[in-house]
Write a structure and sequence with these properties.
This protein has two domains: about 230 residues, Spore Coat Polysaccharide Biosynthesis Protein SpsA, Chain A; about 60 residues. Helix 10 runs antiparallel to helix 11. The protein is elongated, with a radius of gyration of 23 Å. The chain has a seven-stranded mixed beta sheet with strand order 3-2-1-4-6-5-7, sandwiched between helices. It has about 325 residues and is α/β, with parallel strands linked by helices. It is built from twelve helices and seven strands. The C terminus is likely disordered.
């Protein structure tokens, strides 16, 4: 079993040489991806790091953290690396935790593991307020979008993934920049990969986060809507038609019918300047009540449909 670490390298020159020596012997390869870094951090590593495990890859154009990670993933697939751990080069992620991230995968319990900074209460007190609020909101949105109702902290970049999942993922289609982690979870959901959280403490020093409020408020919502619609279509209408599909279809139909009927009665009676009868109110409310109940049934079905059998145990890996 060959374990490698991929480190996206962009403006982390003052951190990266301190990070590499902390990566333990459980890791056989270290792939540093210089994402067209203005500090030439890749060349800096080559000239100053003597660790024989290190390989430096270069981007001619900046592709963002997701693009750098995907380059590392593709390298892993091409060079028969079995398991890839992603570490940021800014020192936020403790390399001593690598064994905790790879153990569930090595034991055959998961295809993909990711950090969860919300597990330890004492760690939350050290998290900047804007990050705490933003990650809490994004966690709930991501649960709906990707279907992994069992995971938190979706923007956490400390991850590990088995090549069995990488071989099935359409790597070029995954978002390149700060939507990468969320898009990765969506893509994993479409192939039925098992995802598991790993509790961890966050480290906040003098690094700067590139994830701005503008990106979250204006760039992320259209992408979330797109991924959510795709997940529902793939899982409940294209690849399968199940009880959840029926609940969702009937729920939407009944809810919108009730709203439309209620709107019709309201406009009609307003123009005629008459009171709406109790019968008309009930006729509108009943399909809405039934529709909402159906949607709740669908939600319960969706929560129970979280992938539970790792891809390694399913076999038959074909790129989707």
């Amino acid at each position: 079993m060959v374990v490698a670490v991929v480190i996206p390298s962009y403006k982390v020159k003052k951190h990266i040489l301190g990070l590499i020596p902390e990566i333990g012997s459980e890791v056989q390869r270290i792939i540093v991806v210089d994402d067209c870094c203005p500090e030439q951090s890749g060349k800096f590593v080559e000239e100053n790091c003597q660790d024989p495990r290190v390989t430096v890859l270069y981007h001619k154009e900046n592709q963002g953290v997701g693009g750098a990670v995907k380059t590392g993933y593709q390298y892993a697939v091409d060079h028969e690396i079995d398991l890839m751990v992603k570490l940021d080069g800014d020192g936020q992620m403790d390399p001593k935790l690598i064994s905790k991230f790879i153990t569930p995968i090595l034991n055959g319990d998961a295809d993909y593991t990711k950090g969860n900074r919300f597990y330890f209460l004492e760690s939350l007190s050290r998290m900047p307020g804007i990050r705490l609020f933003g990650n809490s909101a994004l966690s709930f949105i991501n649960k709906m979008v990707n279907g992994y109702w069992n995971v938190m902290d979706p923007t956490n970049g400390y991850t590990a993934v088995h090549r069995a999942a990488l071989e099935r993922l359409p790597l070029p289609k995954i978002a390149n920049r700060y939507f990468f982690e969320s898009d990765m979870l969506f893509r994993l959901g479409t192939i039925g990969a098992v995802v598991q959280d790993v509790p961890m403490h966050a480290k906040y020093e003098d690094e700067e986060s590139g994830l701005s409020v503008r990106k979250v408020l204006f760039e992320f919502p259209p992408k979330y809507i797109n991924r959510f619609n795709k997940r529902i279509f793939y899982n409940y209408f294209l690849r399968d038609f199940n009880l959840g599909s029926i609940h969702l279809t009937l729920g939407l139909m009944l809810t919108f019918f009730g709203i439309a009927l209620g709107g019709y009665f309201w406009v009609k009676n307003s123009l005629e300047e008459v009171y709406t009868s109790s019968g008309s109110v009930m006729l509108s409310a009943l399909p809405i009540i039934l529709g909402v109940q159906m949607l709740l049934f669908f939600l319960n079905y969706d929560v129970q449909s979280i992938p539970k059998k790792p891809l390694l145990k399913k076999g038959g890996f074909t790129r989707s």
